[in-house]
Amino acid sequence: MKICVIYSHHKLGDLIWQLPYIKSISSHHNSRITLITRPTTQAKDILKDENYINNFFYCNFRKGIWYFLEIFILFNFFKKNNFSHVYILDKISRPAIAAKLAGIKNIIGPGVKNQKKWLTCCSYLSLNEYKILNYSEQSEMVLNLNGINVLDKIPRINIHEDSLKSIEPKIILNNKNFVSFGVDSFEPYKMWFEEQFAELANKLNDAGITDQIFLISSKANSQIVKKIINLSKRDIFYNCSKLNLLGVIKVIKKSKFFVGNNSGPLNLASALNIRAFGLIANDKVSELRNSNISPILPDDYEDKFYRDREGMRRLNVEKVYNQIISDLN
């Protein structure tokens, strides 16, 4: 029996939320799986130590002429590997088309719109269910409809220390208290402001909670890191914007706790079993319920989306600082 699981979303955080369902598929079949996903997730790096994943295959899932080329690429991959089951954890059609053409006997997915005609399963999500359920709930329902139980819904990632030994930065502990801040996001409306991060850093430093803070962002948002450093005016920061993903994992694992926007690094910290505080004001905290994240919310919080970054100012530094101190004690 050979199992393949496909997840086509491009963000790391979205993939992390799918890990309990990918693992449940592996457990159900008592077989390690092959994972097909986008290269932007860097799954080969972050999931290489997971014992339920045997192999990785990257596909960009592009539009236009690439649509037909990628069907051909996936067809060849499926044909070569002779999978018994292909699970698709979103509504994308081309893996289902390729699997059908390759003669795969069991093709399972949500069955939304055009995808349904290429699947072999008999139970699907309705279009209304697909619209109202979040990504995790969609995957859980697809598995339940096909007789697969999900026993643990909390994402978890195992990274062996040996996998990080040669990765930059070289961290010398020297009894320092390390903390990580996740300061950017693909979605700017989720981002706390630079002056707020700088003020929080200074308060934590003054209280003796931390001696050094790792500022985590993408390379494209390095100006956010630089602004926080300039506003703080203290030599307590390490700029992580140039690190690769394994480097980010390394600094998170060395941290006492993580504080950050609702983005990939927050989900990563939680999955790595590091105490993670999520700064939530403009999006739904209910989507974090199956995680180890401790949300910090403004007093007037509502479980809704507000796509205006100014709304993040409602979450003041004093509230964030006090909740961190309270939870740590």
In N-to-C order, the SSE pattern is EHEHEHEHEHHEHEHEHEHEEH
Distance N terminus to C terminus? 49 Å
- Annotation, overall tally of beta strands: 11
Low-confidence stretches: none
Q: In CATH, what is the class of the largest domain?
A: Alpha Beta
Given the C-alpha coordinates, what overall shape results? globular
Structural class: alpha/beta
CATH superfamily of the largest domain: Glycogen Phosphorylase B
Structure, explained:
There is one protein chain. The protein is of the alpha/beta class and 329 residues long. It has 2 domains: 3-145, Rossmann fold; 161-328, Rossmann fold (3-Layer(aba) Sandwich), CATH 3.40.50. It is 36% helix and 14% strand. A 6-stranded parallel beta sheet has the order 8-7-6-9-10-11, sandwiched between helices. A 5-stranded parallel beta sheet has the order 3-2-1-4-5, with helices on both faces. Strand 7, helix 8 and strand 8 (237-239) form a beta-alpha-beta unit. Helix 3 (65-81) crosses helix 4 (94-101), helix 7 packs across helix 8 and helix 7 (194-206) packs across helix 11 (317-328). The protein is globular, with a radius of gyration of 21 Å.
Protein topology:
Elements: E1 3-6, H1 12-29, E2 33-37, H2 43-46, E3 53-58, H3 65-81, E4 85-88, H4 94-101, E5 106-108, H5 127-132, H6 135-145, E6 178-182, H7 194-206, E7 212-216, H8 222-232, E8 237-239, H9 245-253, E9 258-261, H10 264-271, E10 276-279, E11 293-296, H11 317-328
